[in-house]
Amino acid sequence: MTEGCGNDMGWFDRPEFGPNVGLIDDVYRQYLDDPTSVSEAWREFFAEHEPEQPEQPEGASTEQARETPAPAPAPRAGTQEPPPARAAGQEAERAPEPRAAVRDAERAAEPRADGQAARGDGAAGRDGGEPLRGAAARIVQAMESSLQVPTATSFRVVPARLLEVNRDVLNSHLRRRRGGKVSFTHVIGYAVVRAIQAMPVMNSIYVERDSKPHVRHPEHINLGLAVDTRRPDGSRTLLVPNIKAAETLDFAAFISAYEQLVGKVRANKLTVEDFADTTVTITNPGTVGTVMSVPRLLAGQAAIIGVGAIGYPAEYRGADPATLAELAVGKTVTLTSTYDHRVIQGAESGEFLAKVQA
User: What pLDDT is stored for residue 108 in this prediction?
Assistant: First the structure.
């Protein structure tokens, strides 16, 4: 990210948005290029929270200056007088707008076809490095901030047989009635919400007041869904919108809210409200075959729950089905609970995972 751009973006860099600030960065850039390219909700948000423009260099013109003539400011000490206006009938040259200058600088740093970043002087970076901007830069900031959170992680290997049976029953019912399909993540996500209801301590958030430690107990469980997205250029980023007040929803409403949120991610229709105030996040690296993981807990959240891949233990994966049945070997799924150890204890996290299994 360019230095100037970083200064512009700090106005919405708030803890409650977590790594999603990167998406807001990207949408804001689209808004700067063409306000009509973003939804009305985003336009209203940016118009309401538009940051003050930095002081312009002498002789530069802004949109407001072009629309509403104003007296030129007096030159500061140590600076040169602005150039005199041209003769009547000649159009004065307009200096590049700051926003345009930022965009030009970013485009100059875009990776070229040979994998190197172009530099302002036209020479390619010799080391092949390129700057991280937008969502990628914000993820770096979120990860560095997460290092300040003292965490611990509980693991629990859960037999998956009952999970598979219940999912099959639900999907058979849906096929007969109205169609649709329930995923394993739907079922586990709902189980996580119900387990937190039974153990509200898992929704505890550490805060500081007057430099003294406090614990906050949010009224609702806002369940974040870590959604991996792939961009047209092949790069990937992680978005974490949340289901608001998830504990107030029955299973059908939870599935509906879940699918609506994922649909908004795919359609690029998320709003700022979809990101705010996540309390607990669920992430499913099992979709890419990861057996277990210890995800990073972002500052301002209570816990993050990782869901591993569902499958037979590695040593049995090549066995004959009859042999597996004879040995009573079944599929398992590993759940992890990474929590803020300042306000949540290991025994509480372990008991929470037992309730998810139950």
Answer: 44
* Other beta carbons within 10 Å of 98: 17
As a whole number of angstroms, the distance between CA 108 and CA 35 comes to: 22
Q: Which long-range contacts (CB under 8 A, 24 or more apart) does 143-151 make?
A: 143/296, 145/298, 145/299, 146/296, 146/297, 146/298, 146/299, 148/299, 149/206, 149/297, 149/298, 149/299, 149/340, 150/340, 150/341, 150/342, 151/297, 151/338, 151/339, 151/340, 151/341
228-245: per-residue pLDDT in tens? 887 777 777 778 899 999
Dihedral, CA of residue 298, residue 299, residue 300 and residue 304, to nearest 10: 30
Percentages helix, strand, coil for the chain (3-state, rounded to 5) are: 45, 15, 40
Closest-CA residue to 157 (of 338, 36, 330): 330
Closest CA to 184 of 35, 339, 20, 333: 333
Distance CA 208, CA 194 (A): 28
Q: Are 292 and 308 in contact (CB under 8 A)?
A: yes
Q: Mind telling me the catalytic residues?
A: 341
> Is 99 a residue whose pLDDT tops 60?
no
